[in-house]
Amino acid sequence: MDVKEAVMEKYGQAALRVVSGQGSACCSASPSSGCSGGDPITSNLYDELQKNELPEAAVLASLGCGNPTALAELKPGETVLDLGSGGGIDVLLSARRVSPGGKAFGLDMTDEMLALANANKQKAGIENVEFLKGEIESIPLPDDSVDVIISNCVINLSADKDRVLREAFRVLKPGGRLAVSDVVTRGEVNPAIRENMLLWVGCVAGALEEDQYRGKLAAAGFENIGIEPTRIYRSEDALSFLADKGLDADAIGPQVDGKFMSAFVRATKPVSAPSPPF
Questions:
Q1: Antiparallel, parallel or unpaired: β 260-268 and 223-233
Q2: Is the preceding omega at residue 100 within 30 degrees of 0, hence cis?
Q3: Within a 10 A sphere around the Cβ of 166, how many other Cβ atoms?
Q4: By three-state DSSP, how is residue 242 classified?
Q5: DSSP codes of every residue in 190-216
Q6: What is the Cα–Cα distance from 140 to 86, expressed in whole angstroms?
């Protein structure tokens, strides 16, 4: 099973788990398991006011590592695109913030998540939303068509992050903003974690080192690049996201202490953007 197939299986089953009433989604769950509560990555990201704005299923389906809508400074009239929109929580929150006159797109490759997102859209009664089927490596929108791109712990899941960032640059309007939450690393990470497929779909193993992330954004053409930590994971957190992965959590936990973090990643497309360097 490659990364794409593993991600589709995990997220499809997460959507079905929510629809069937079996509980919430979470980053630390393997494709065939549920959540066991207290996920250090996905828990307590949205305040109660935001949760109350949305259908319960949108909240339960959240697999993010942050709250990009809280920091993206969205304005009425803007067009927003959420890469890997899942059950739609960030799309629906964004749609309210860009109203009137704006629109929020959600892009996801998983049929089960798209069905759940569209059901949540209907329950929320929000009209300025459109969910698209596709992959974040090949965004089905025209050049220079989006004011803001958000994403919530999804870019790290891609096996071709350079292509994702080039596509994000392409569809952003000149002066457009990238404002994503993602898992980022600091320093060397144990190879056993990098090689473990279940950790790819669990939001950890595919994380870029922060300087590498900056370099890839710059190579795609972005400027004003910033990475702001929002949660730094300690050794005790590793016991959760290493559980049931075939690894010795007690041995590896101290090695990853402070090396994984959720971060808010910002960048802008230059107002006079040259042709992309690819």
A1: antiparallel
A2: yes
A3: 19
A4: coil
A5: -HHHHT-HHHHTTTSTTPEEHHHHHHH
A6: 16
DSSP string, 127-171: -SEEEEE-BTTB-SS-TT-EEEEEEES-GGG-S-HHHHHHHHHHH
Query: What is the average pLDDT score of the chain?
Result: 81
Q: What pLDDT, in 10s, does the model give residues 218-239?
A: 999 999 999 999 888 888 877 7
Q: Between β-strands 129-133 and 103-108, what pairing exists: parallel, antiparallel or unpaired?
A: parallel
DSSP line for 6-45? HHHHHHHHHHHHHHTTS----TT--TT----S--TTTSS-
Q: Quick check: helix, strand or coil at residue 107? A: strand
**pLDDT tens digit sequence for 98-153:** 999 999 999 999 898 899 899 999 998 999 999 999 999 999 999 999 999 999 88
| Secondary structure class of 225 (helix, strand, coil) | strand
Coil/strand/helix, residue 71: helix
- Judged by DSSP in three states, 276 sits in coil
pTM of the entire predicted model: 0.82
Which residues, at least 6 apart from 5, have a Cβ–Cβ distance to it below 8 Å?
none
Encoding tokens for residue 35?
């959540």
Residue type, 41: I
Residue 207: partners with Cβ closer than 8 Å, 6 or more residues away: 156, 182, 183, 184, 185, 189, 260
Backbone φ and ψ of 275, nearest 5°:
-60, 140
- Euclidean distance between the first and the last CA atom of the chain, given in angstroms as a whole number: 29
- Cβ atoms of residues 236 and 252 within 8 Å: no
DSSP character for 181? E
Average pLDDT over residues 192-214: 79
Query: Residue 36: how many CA atoms within 13 Å on its side-chain side?
Result: 11
